[in-house]
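Course assignment 3, question 2. Fill in each field.
Student: A.L.
Task: Predict the tertiary structure for the chain below.
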Amino acid sequence: MNLLSILMLAVLWVFPVSAYALADNAMPLNELSVQIDPRDSSIKGVSRISLPAGQSAKINLTGIEVTAVSVGDRALAVGPGTESFIFTPDSAEDILKIEFRAGYRPLPEVNNSDNPGAIKGNHIGPEGILLTDNWYPAVDGASLHRLTAVLPSGFEAISEADEVRVRELAGNSREFLFVFQHPLRNLTLIAGRYKVEMERHGDIEILTYFYAEDSGLSKTYREFTGKYLDMYEKYLGEYPYRRFAAVENFLSAGYSFPTFTLLGKDILKMPFIPETSLGHEVLHQWFGNLVYTDNKSGNWSEGLTTYLADHRYEELKDKGWDYRKQLLISFGSYVASEKDFPLRSFSGREDRVSAAIGYGKSAMVFHMLRRMVGEEVFFSSLRKFVEKYRFRAASWSDIRDVFESGYGRDLEWFFKQWVEESGVPELEINNLELKYAGAKAVVSFNVDQKGKNYKLFLPVAVQLREGEVRKVITIEKEPSTHVEVEIEAEDTPVSLIIDDNYELFRKLSGEEFPPVVSRLLGDDKKIFVVPQDKADLYAELSRFLEGEGYTEKKEQEVSYEDIRNYSLLIPGIETSIAKRLLGKLEEQTSDFYLLTRENPINKKGVITVVGSRVPSELTGYMQKITHYGKYGNLAFRANKNILKTVDETERGIRTVISENTSGVEIPRLTDIYGVIEKAAGKDIIYVGEGHDKFEHHRMQLQVIKGLYKKYKKIAIGMEMFQKPSQQALDDYIAGKTDEKTFLKKSEYFKQWGYDYNLYREILLFARAYKIPVIALNIPKKLVSKVSKEGLRALTTDELREVPEYYDITDMGYYERLKDSFEKHARAKEMNFDFFYEAQVLWDESMARNLDEFVSKNPEYKVVVLAGEGHMTFGSGIPKRAFRLNKREYTIILNAGDVEKDIADFVLLPSPVSLPESPKLGVLMKDEDKKVIINQFTPDSRAKQAGLRENDIILSLDDTPVESVDDMRIFLLSKKKGDEIRVKVLRERFLLGPGEREFKVIL
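Answer field:
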């Protein structure tokens, strides 16, 4: 009896026909019997194909040599080289018999650095058998299979099977019978000289097919497989098969097949594979092997498997955000806009670009879907999806249908935006502002999309001095890329952070994008810099890099334009160009090192420096780095990795709202919160200012809030208000009057003149918490008179308004004032002695007014707000107030030179723009309760609206105007872009004055 007859008897003995008839009577059946000879790399066999009644099928013959074709006793003519034909049986009993043979020489070990781990083709040799692609007569589409294979003794074989039966045959051979009653689109056969080990996990057999030298890994792989099966049965439902095997491949390639996974020999030994990649392959038993991908509409399974495997394992360690960031880094590194394509066009990984899209972007899409629909809907929908499409091809549209059913909402926009279209959202934060409204801080900003517009659920966090506020902002796709956002907070906002957990598929900002190997590999414009006079030394590396897309240039030929437009690969930290661009780099002692830095001239590119003790080994190491794309710094010793790090970058799109201002406590450094903590022990806290520096007033407010939080009984002394306005202040703080009344009664604009917005937040906070405010200043007319005529020019009535005592003996103060005075442009027109007297009068008056409050309210701490000139070295108010009441004080200055004894603390706040009130663009004069336009500023909005010089302004939005102050108060509540109505009285030729009304856009 010949071997083929023996095989057929075995098939009939093992596989009763009824078993398959019961499985699916509407499915084609392909009964295969093959014999493999590894010595001459050959296979020969017979395929018997049965079709359900009334069906035809396309038979694929690609990759094999057909020796005979028949149906029953009737031979069919199939010419040499025929790749396919249509089989149409006359009856259900007709069986197509195809005898075939093929030879598959061993595949070379090709290191495809652009698509590592991918090897196509079939292989038969003494070291092993790999049959995955067009190796047998196949029915187009899914069909049932019966496979019997005969191999030499010593080989263990595996194919898609719920059960494998083995018989020893005469002639030193073995027969393998594979039982699998589920349809397949493709059949696989793997064999090698394996050691097979098995354990049961409930009703499932878990096996390893490892070479003897690696069998020590078997227990670990079997244990982890059991954990993964439990995990995914919980998420997705019952495991669809009765066995799962991890199989070692004699090549470096790895694949997943129903009931087993093939792991490359080098990959298998990596210690992290059982905890990562193995679970990915187990999950493919559901996605890709149980539910097939409809590649015509896009391969969804790789992204979903990546998301629920590799990403999920990091998520369980609270590192999901980091994994998602790595996906965005890979996309940003490899996918230039001209290379991008939609997910519906992804069929499989062919290079780094397709991997970044089909695995990375797809995983992010499933993450966004999960975030949108919620945990329960997400996983219940996946279970329904698996159940509905078991052993069927499913598309992105099918996924959408299932999720719409579970979610109860239309998801067309979501799948159209993320699956049907290419592109990546690019976000910008603009017009960030911080305002205070009483006790609340209000952060406002704009979110702008650059280029294409997306609908997004944008995670936003405002970090506070203590705690944070988190929100999700919905950005609609239409009508604009511009979205205005406001967020309220109780504490001091420090920074605004967009998507710090990487919930969105988006383009990383420059501050988030670290200099990593993938950016070098993914850059289409990269130069290999050949060090001067060392071309021969790097000739082998140069040839390799040429094939990897590098342009080669000698060091002396690299121009500024090259550096500005290219990434650079430089061998050796001592290369002159590396020194000029990156400075002195730390000496490396490893066998191979790689250091990646931002290109200081080309922000899109990187500069990578590599080196080896043996330059001839650089090529081999450069081939390895494709597996380390997410790192920026690498080192190897004895061919083993000993260092892999990445420079830390921002987490999320971050924008500073208010600086955590540094300060100096002489002689120790601290920050503003340390300053507040230490200053709080004193009775009087002086906080200096440059009157027009908004950041100084922000620091004052922070000090006030910090002290109020600790003590409650505090008061605020303000240089900005004169003593006669104390009642107006008291009434406003108590809530008896509104802001408009307060400003009019205090005559703020006449007496002080600086933009009220500089102080408004402080007064709103004081009003919110009923914190007393002390008007410290002396009437301006008195100081002005003394500065022009001296102290002796004051009348008897005027002298009653000034302090009884004032000290002019502080010569240090005198000299400092004189030095400042002499630098003034009008110094020659003024008398310094009068100026000095006026300054002392000013200081002494404020010290006296402060002392009056402290004497009546000894339980209060007072924060004094005044110009820094009144505080430096304690010479202005502090020493004079101490002379009066002996109360301990501390001095905090904002900016300025740090000198011995100048203050107790010096803060260094960053500049903050003042949210100024809008202006009409007119210069006005008060005249008998009339406000007359005197002239216009350049680009005046009022002039553009039609107003003229000498117009008398009667009202603004029907609010009567009797003084310039009325106009300033009215404009406080307005913002740029508002439209107001301005009513004026205008003199008309011959007709006399008449009223006119104009609309002005501020």
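Instructor remarks: The mean pLDDT is 90. The longest strand covers residues 427-437.
Grade: pending
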